[in-house]
Amino acid sequence: MKNVVTGLLAIILGLIIIAFPLAGVIAVSVLAGFAVLILAIWFLLAGIMEMESSKTVGILYVILGLIALIFAFGLIFNPALISFISGLVLYLAGILMIVAGIISLLGGMEQKHRVWGGVLGIILGIIYIILGTYAFSPVYLGILIGIWLVITGIFSFLGED
Question: Residue 42 pLDDT > 80, yes or no?
Fold first, then answer.
């Protein structure tokens, strides 16, 4: 029963986000921003507390906290930042998958599973780069998030015993 409710909520939320993609991106960005803000506060407090036993570690925690604080406010007040980060991560992951696929192809010509693993890595890498291109736009990122929620909801239904 839990999977049915979770699946239904994911599908409904996904359809709402597909209909209003910018609202979905803003919500994700603000939530991520508040999560990073909590982390930033923890780093700052840990840095201040650590100053007594190790100045170097304390200063590093404070610097990390300040960087996280800037990043948190960027996510909260500039939702386009999450689109940039999402696109960049997808690009980097795609490039790494393509490189790993090529390495697997070159190193495993005599082993069939390595060849197919390499081909799959290259194909998935290309898909990631294509998705990364769309993720740079907040509207397309919202649509991708909505599609992901709908698919997750469908799989929740399929996983019901």
Answer: yes
